[in-house]
Specification:
By secondary structure, this protein is an alpha+beta fold. The chain has 4 helices and 5 strands, in the order βαββααβαβ. It has one domain: 2-Layer Sandwich (50s Ribosomal Protein L5, Chain: A), CATH 3.30.1440.10. 31% of the residues lie in helices and 27% in strands. It has a 5-stranded antiparallel sheet with strand order 2-3-1-5-4.
Length: 116
């Protein structure tokens, strides 16, 4: 099953790592650049929140990484849910990048949908 219907997803849930050496306001700034108009809250060593995917999807198209995003969503599929790990440094400059084990942690985006 492939997910060429990334466009059909409207909402998600984000969980961003917050290292003890990081400034929480910078991580929040990074999150707000790729998920504007969302509400986030600190939960210990994480920042979490429900997000709208509208701006995120626009950035994915602009970066021309839709195929990679959809492949990872397909790879991480479990039932009706999936996730993708995003790079915090890319987000800080308003870009979407796939995280590949950065030592500063990741932004994990969870999505779910009903199968047709």
């Amino acid at each position: 099953m492939t997910f060429e219907r990334l466009g059909g997803l409207d909402q998600g849930f984000v969980e961003a790592d917050l290292k003890n050496t990081e400034d929480e306001s910078k991580v929040l700034s990074a999150l707000n650049k790729i998920f504007p108009a969302s509400n986030f809250e600190g939960k210990g060593d994480k920042i979490v929140g429900e997000v709208s995917l509208s701006s995120f999807k626009d950035l994915v198209e602009k970066e021309k990484i839709r195929a990679a995003i959809e492949a990872l969503l397909d790879e991480n599929l479990s039932g009706e849910k999936s996730y993708i790990d995003l790079n915090k440094l890319a987000a800080l400059v308003g870009r979407v990048g796939i995280d590949e084990g950065s030592p500063i942690g990741k932004i994990r985006l969870y999505v779910s949908w009903k199968k047709a």
